[in-house]
Specification:
heterodimer, A: alpha/beta, Rossmann fold, 5-stranded antiparallel beta sheet, 21 helices, elongated, disordered C terminus, B: about 325 residues, MetI-like fold, 13 helices, about 80% helix, about 0% strand, membrane (chain B), BPD_transp_1_N (chain B), MetI-like (chain B)
Chain lengths: ~575, ~325
C-alpha cells in the first residue's frame, strides 16, 4: 500500500479527521501563542485571583490572578516541546537499535535486547524522580531520560519487522546486487517499518505528555514557565476556592492525548485492514427445505449453500451442494483448497467459523432429523455422541494447557455420563486402541510433549470416544509425516469397520481416496461436479475437472515415490 | 520447573544489580553541591570538606558504589542526608501504605477487566464498543487528574469522602477504607480501561483457535469451553498485562499520594527528589526494582503453571 493511499483511507474515517484537526489547532495555537493569547501568561491581576470563567478572563484566573486561557496556550509550547524531545530520543535510540538488532542479529541483538528488557522493568516515574536532580533539575533533561526509557517499544517493533523482511527475496536481491548494508536498510527496510513506527509514535507522544505533566504536577519543573502540569498543580492548590480550574489543563491534556491515540488507531486500522467491528447484516431467512425424504441414508445434504457477511450482504462460498453418506460407508470429498469441502464438513458439524451462515433452502438431514434448523443447544447434543470430528492439524487442535488425558476424560464424561474412574479407564483403553505404545505416559503428557503423529492418534481416539455413527475427518493426514500418514489411514479404516461408522473424509489427495474411500465426490468452486464409486471414478472420470485433478496427481506421483525411497 | 525458576532468578538478580549500579553512578555523580546545600551559604571550605568526608563523597564514585552495595546487601541502605533517618527504616514505614493501595488497585483491575474483557469478547455489540471508547479515555486521562476530578466531586461538592488524611488499618479499619476509596478508584479507572481491552483481545484470539472448535465438536458445554479452556489459555497474556499494570500503578501511586496526602513511598520520593536526598532516592529505586522483579518472577512462575508450554521456551 502506498503512503498517499494510506493517508487517503485514513481521511475517510471521520474520527481520524477530527483528531487531526484538534491536534493541528492545539499545535498552531501553542506555536502562535504570542499572537493568539489575549494576555501575557505572567501578567498578574489581584482582582482576578481564582476568578471564575468569563469575567474578563475567558476561562478565569488562576491562584496568582493570571489568565488561565493565555497560560494554556503558552504552556502548550513547553509541554509539546517536552513531548517532542522524549519522542525524538525514543525514536532515534529505538529505531536505530532495532534496525541493528534485526538486521545483524547475533550477539549485538542479544545485548540490545537485554538492554531493552532492563529498561522495561523500570518503574519510570520513580526513576525520573530519583534522577531529576542528578540530571540538572530540568524538565527537558528529564524528558530526554524518559525518551531513553520509552525506546524499547520502538526497538522491539522495528526489530521484529526487520527480522520479518530480512529474508524477503527483494532484500536478498538487493544484497546480491551489491548494495551496501546501510543503503538496504534505508531503502528497503525502513520503508516497511514506517507505518508501525508512526502508530507507536502517536502512543509514545501521548505517554510523554501525561508523564511530563505528572512530573510538573509534583512540582518538578520551572515554576516560571507555564506548563499544563504546572497549571494543574496551581489548580490543585486552590481546589477548594476554585474547583473549576482543574478542568481546563486536564481537558487540554486529555484532548491532545486522545487525539494522538485515535489518529494512531485510525492509521493502524487502515494498514492492518481491520475495519471497525461492525454488526454483521441479518442473515436472510432460510427458505423451507424440501429434501427428498424417500429412502433416507444416514446423512443427506440437499442444496447446501454457505455464505459469509461482506459489507451489508452475504457472499456465497458453497452453492447448492447435494451429498449422501450411507450407513457404514467411507465417502471422500475431494477438491482443491477453497473448493468449499471443509465448509461443507463444518456445516454438518454446525461449527462454521464466525459469520458462516446457511442460506436458501439448505438442508442437512442426519438419521431422519433436519439439523440445519435446530438451535445450537440441540445440535451440541449430537456432536461427540452421534457425529465425531477429526481435525487436520494435530498440534493446534489440542488445548496446550491441559494434559492429554484430561482432554479425553472431560468429553467422555460430558457425552456418556461416566464416572471419573470409568472415564479414565475408557480413555486409557482408547489410547491403546489407537496404537499409542505407552498409554499411561501419553495420558499424563501435555500436548507439546508428544509428536504430531501421536497427537493425531489422540485426536482420533477423542473423535471415536462417543461411538459416533458418522465421523467427519478433515484432511486427517495432511499435516503428518509421510511415514505416519499410511498408519493413520489404516487406523481410521480399522476403527470405521470396527464401529460400523460412516465417514466423510475431506481431502485434496487422490492417493488417500484410493486407499480408504468407497465413494468419492469431487468439488470445485463450491459445487460438487462428480460423484461416483471409487473404482469407476478413477477408471473413467467424467468431468474435465476430475480428469485434470487425477492427471496432476499421476504426474507428480512418480518423482515423489522416488524421493521417499531416497529419504529412507 | 525448578530449573525454570532458577534461570529466572539469576536473570532477575543480574537485572537488579545492573539497574542499581547505573542508578547509583547517575545519582551520585551530581553531588558536588550537597555539602553546601546542607550547611548553608556561610559554611567554610573546611566545613564543606569535613561534611563531604562524613558523607563519604570525597572518595571516588566507584568506591562509594562498592561501600553502598556492601551495606545494601546487609539491608543497610544508608542514612537520609536531610532527616538523618535510616533509609531502610523510612522505606519500611512507608512501603506498606503504598503497597496496600497498589495491591488493592491491581486486584480490582484484574477482577473488573477480566469480567468486562470476557463479556465484550463473547457478547460483542454495545459492550464491545463501550470498552473500545473507554480504553482510549483511560489512556488519555492522566490518573492524577482523574483523582482531582474525584476530589472535586466527592469531597468538595458532595463531601461524602475524605480528600486527604490516611488512617492506619490498625487504628480504624472503616476510616482506612474510606481514605483509600478515592485514591484506589483514580488508579483503577485508567488501568481497568486498558487492561479490559487487552483481555478482550486475548479471549478473542483464544476463541479463534483450532482446539476450541475441536472441543466443541466433542460435545463439551459452551460454559466449559469458555471458562475452563479459553480463560485458562487467555490467562497468560492477561497476566502479562497485569504485571505491566502493576509497574505502571506503582508510578501512578506516587502522584496519587501527593493528591490525597498519603504518607507512602511516593511522598517520601517526591520530597527526596525536591531536596536532592540521594540516599533515599537510591533506596526507593532499588526497593521498587526488587519489587517489580519479584512480581515479574511470580507472574512467570504462574504462567508456567497455567500453561506448561511456557516453561520449555
Amino acid at each position: 500500500m502506498t503512503a498517499s493511499n494510506t493517508v487517503r483511507k485514513v481521511f475517510r474515517n471521520p474520527l481520524a479527521v477530527a483528531a487531526l484537526v484538534i491536534l493541528v489547532v492545539i499545535v498552531l495555537a501553542s506555536v502562535f501563542a504570542p499572537l493568539v493569547a489575549p494576555h501575557s501568561p505572567t501578567a498578574l491581576r489581584l482582582d482576578k485571583i481564582n476568578a471564575g470563567p468569563g469575567s474578563g478572563y475567558l476561562l478565569g484566573g488562576d491562584g496568582a490572578g493570571r489568565d488561565i486561557f493565555s497560560r494554556l496556550l503558552y504552556a502548550g509550547r513547553n509541554t509539546l516541546t517536552g513531548a517532542v524531545i522524549a519522542l525524538s530520543v525514543a525514536l532515534l535510540l529505538g529505531v536505530v537499535s532495532g534496525l541493528l538488532s534485526g538486521y545483524y542479529g547475533g550477539l549485538l541483538d542479544g545485548v540490545l535486547g537485554w538492554g531493552a528488557n532492563l529498561l522495561m522493568a523500570l518503574p519510570t516515574m520513580i526513576v525520573l524522580l530519583a534522577l531529576f536532580q542528578a540530571l540538572g533539575s530540568s524538565i527537558y533533561l528529564a524528558m530526554v531520560a524518559f525518551g531513553v526509557m520509552l525506546s524499547p517499544g520502538f526497538h522491539r517493533l522495528v526489530r521484529s519487522q526487520v527480522m520479518a523482511v530480512k529474508h524477503e527475496l527483494y532484500v536478498d536481491a538487493a544484497r546480491v546486487s551489491g548494495l551496501s548494508d546501510p543503503r538496504i536498510i534505508g531503502r528497503h527496510v525502513l520503508l516497511v517499518v514506517r507505518a508501525p513506527i508512526v502508530i507507536q509514535a502517536a502512543v509514545v507522544a501521548g505517554i510523554a505528555i501525561v508523564v511530563q505533566s505528572g512530573l510538573e504536577f509534583l512540582g518538578l519543573g520551572d515554576p516560571a514557565t507555564p506548563t499544563w502540569g504546572g497549571m494543574l498543580q496551581d489548580a490543585f492548590t486552590n481546589i477548594y476556592t476554585s474547583p473549576v480550574a482543574i478542568w481546563w489543563p486536564g481537558l487540554t491534556i486529555a484532548l491532545t492525548v486522545a487525539a494522538l491515540v485515535l489518529l494512531g488507531n485510525a492509521i493502524r486500522d487502515v494498514i492492518q485492514r481491520t475495519e471497525r467491528p461492525r454488526k454483521p447484516p441479518k442473515p436472510p431467512a432460510l427458505v423451507p427445505a424440501t429434501p427428498d425424504t424417500s429412502d433416507l441414508p444416514l446423512l443427506r445434504i440437499t442444496n447446501l449453500s454457505v455464505g459469509y457477511p461482506i459489507g451489508n450482504d452475504y457472499r456465497e462460498v458453497v452453492h447448492g451442494v447435494d451429498l449422501d453418506v450411507r450407513q457404514g460407508e467411507v465417502m471422500g470429498l475431494v477438491g482443491e483448497s477453497g473448493s468449499g469441502k471443509t465448509q461443507t464438513a463444518f456445516s454438518v458439524l454446525g461449527l462454521l467459523p464466525p459469520g458462516g451462515t446457511l442460506l436458501g433452502s439448505s438442508s442437512i438431514v442426519f438419521d431422519g432429523r433436519e439439523l440445519s434448523r435446530l438451535p445450537d443447544s440441540e445440535r451440541r447434543v449430537l456432536r461427540g455422541r452421534r457425529i465425531g470430528y477429526v481435525p487436520q492439524e494435530p498440534m493446534s487442535n489440542l488445548d496446550p494447557c491441559f494434559r492429554v488425558g484430561e482432554q479425553l476424560v472431560e468429553p467422555l464424561r460430558a457425552v456418556s455420563g461416566l464416572s471419573k474412574q470409568a472415564a479414565v479407564v475408557e480413555a486409557l483403553h482408547l489410547l491403546e486402541r489407537v496404537g499409542i505404545p505407552d498409554p499411561r505416559r501419553t495420558f499424563a503428557a501435555y500436548p507439546h510433549e508428544i509428536s504430531g503423529g501421536m497427537a493425531q492418534r489422540v485426536l482420533i481416539a477423542g473423535a471415536v470416544s462417543g461411538k459416533p455413527d458418522l465421523l467427519i475427518a478433515d484432511e486427517p493426514t495432511t499435516a503428518l509425516d509421510v511415514t505416519v500418514q499410511a498408519d493413520v489411514l489404516e487406523l481410521l479404516r480399522g476403527l470405521q469397520t470396527e464401529f460400523g461408522m460412516a465417514m466423510l473424509l475431506v481431502t485434496h489427495n487422490f492417493g488417500v481416496v484410493a486407499d480408504i474411500c468407497d465413494r468419492v465426490a469431487v468439488m470445485q468452486d463450491g459445487r460438487i461436479v462428480e460423484v461416483d464409486d471409487v473404482r469407476p471414478l478413477f477408471a473413467r472420470p467424467q468431468h474435465p475437472y476430475t480428469q485434470t485433478l487425477l492427471g496432476s496427481t499421476l504426474e507428480d506421483s512418480t518423482p515423489r515415490t522416488r524421493l521417499e525411497v531416497n529419504h529412507a | 520447573m525448578f530449573r525454570f525458576i532458577g534461570r529466572r532468578l539469576i536473570a532477575c538478580a543480574v537485572l537488579v544489580v545492573v539497574i542499581a549500579g547505573i542508578t547509583f553512578l547517575l545519582a551520585f555523580s551530581g553531588t558536588s553541591n550537597v555539602a553546601r546545600n546542607l550547611l548553608g551559604e556561610s559554611a567554610t571550605p573546611d566545613q564543606l570538606a569535613a561534611k563531604n568526608a562524613e558523607l563519604g563523597l570525597d572518595k571516588p564514585l566507584l568506591a562509594q558504589l562498592g561501600t553502598w552495595a556492601q551495606n545494601a546487601l546487609h539491608g543497610d541502605l544508608g542514612i537520609s542526608w536531610f532527616t538523618n533517618e535510616p533509609v531502610s527504616q523510612a522505606i519500611a514505614n512507608r512501603l506498606p501504605v503504598t503497597l496496600s493501595m497498589v495491591v488493592l488497585a491491581v486486584a480490582l483491575t484484574a477482577l473488573i477487566s477480566v469480567g468486562l474483557g470476557v463479556a465484550a469478547a463473547v457478547r460483542g455489540g454495545w459492550l464491545d464498543r463501550v470498552i473500545q471508547v473507554l480504553s482510549v479515555a483511560g489512556f488519555a486521562l492522566p490518573n492524577f487528574w482523574v483523582a482531582l476530578v474525584l476530589v472535586v466531586f466527592f469531597s468538595v461538592t458532595l463531601g461524602v469522602l475524605p480528600a486527604t488524611g490516611y488512617v492506619r488499618l490498625s487504628e480504624s479499619p472503616g476510616s482506612w477504607a474510606a481514605a483509600l476509596v478515592l485514591p484506589v478508584a483514580s488508579l483503577v479507572i485508567g488501568s481497568t480501561a486498558s487492561a479490559a481491552q487487552q483481555v478482550r483481545g486475548a479471549v478473542i484470539d483464544v476463541l479463534r483457535q483450532d482446539f476450541v472448535r475441536t472441543l466443541r465438536a466433542r460435545g463439551i458445554s459452551p460454559r466449559s469451553v469458555l471458562f475452563r479452556h479459553a480463560l485458562r489459555n487467555a490467562a497468560i497474556p492477561a497476566l502479562t498485562v497485569l504485571s505491566l499494570q502493576f509497574i505502571a500503578l506503582l508510578g501512578g501511586a506516587v502522584v496519587i499520594e501527593k493528591v490525597f496526602a498519603i504518607p507512602g513511598l511516593g511522598t517520601l520520593t517526591i520530597n527526596a527528589a525536591l531536596q536532592g536526598d540521594v540516599p533515599v532516592l537510591m533506596g526507593v529505586v532499588v526497593t521498587l526494582v526488587v519489587l517489580v522483579v519479584i512480581v515479574n518472577l511470580v507472574i512467570d512462575v504462574v504462567s508456567g503453571w497455567v500453561n506448561p508450554k511456557v516453561r520449555v521456551q
